[in-house]
Amino acid sequence: MIAALLIGRKGSTGFPGKNTFPILGRSMCLYPMLAALNSKYIDRVYVSTDDEKIIDIANQKGVGVIHRPPELCTKDALGEDAFVHGYRVIREIWLEEQIASGIWRTENIEMVVLLMANAVTILAKTIDIGISVLDKYPGLDSAVTVSRYNMWSPLRARKIEPIGLSDIDGLKPFIPFEAFGDPAILNCDRDSQGDVWFADMGVSIVRPHCLENMENGLLPQKWMGRNIYPLKQEGGCDIDYEWQAPGVEHWLLKRGFGFIKTPYDEE
């Protein structure tokens, strides 16, 4: 059994109401939900939330609702903890169904497709590619969407702190230049350090052991495990600020979404 788990809480402080903010006339959370519902391989779709609007959308689409505990709905709560909680609930539901039916199924939960309500740059076909890759290569822990952002190379990162001039602050390297090699040959060209790939939060398709043994995973997204397959896409991101919305709408328009139709309407 392959389950999808979408998470999204109500109380965003940086962008209030972001998970139901309209993108091409639809609530933001609907896009990852539609991707999961239109996957060829996903058997169950769940959403973990405390947001009544998201619950209403889930009920309209036949998506199972997991009520996210209050302690996992604060601004300090970690998404990884919400994923673990949601997975445990799904696992309990799966077990209870088998007990109630009196038929013990031999199949376990094979994979969990992790989605975020504010990450709309994901398509069903991308999810299906990731599931197929994990099915073919059992040594992989996960398959994760990534986008190339060379302009955001760690070499260019700066932090603001005192620089020894009176009471003003200035810019200093966030990471010591020596971490990138010989500082004498570094330059400001955005491609000079090679391609820089960021996990864009579109989807993380993981094996259950990644959620059962979270501490074994790589920082900062420990739910991805250690052997991570990159599902390359262009311009993916999770939305944390309103100014990102037009860029995401551009992404969707290029892939056949509009105010009335979606690519899934034709499949």
Short note summarizing the structure:
The chain has 267 residues and is of the alpha/beta class.
Strands, helices and their partners?
Elements: E1 2-7, E2 22-23, E3 26-27, H1 30-37, E4 44-49, H2 52-61, E5 64-67, H3 79-101, E6 111-116, H4 124-136, E7 142-148, E8 158-162, E9 169-173, E10 197-206, H5 208-212, E11 228-233, H6 245-254
Parallel strand pairs: 1-4, 1-6, 4-5, 7-11
Antiparallel strand pairs: 2-3, 6-10, 7-10, 8-9
What does this structure look like?
With 267 residues, the protein is of the alpha/beta class. The protein has two domains: 2-147 and 197-266, Spore Coat Polysaccharide Biosynthesis Protein SpsA, Chain A; 150-195, no CATH class. The chain contains six helices and eleven strands. It has helices at 30-37, 52-61, 79-101, 124-136, 208-212, 245-254, and strands spanning 2-7, 22-23, 26-27, 44-49, 64-67, 111-116, 142-148, 158-162, 169-173, 197-206, 228-233. The strands form three sheets. A seven-stranded mixed beta sheet has the order 5-4-1-6-10-7-11, sandwiched between helices. Strands 2-3 form a two-stranded antiparallel ribbon. Strands 8-9 form a two-stranded antiparallel sheet. Strand 8 and strand 9 form a beta hairpin. The longest helix is centred in the middle third of the chain and has 23 residues, at 79-101. It is globular. 33% of the residues are buried. The mean pLDDT is 93.
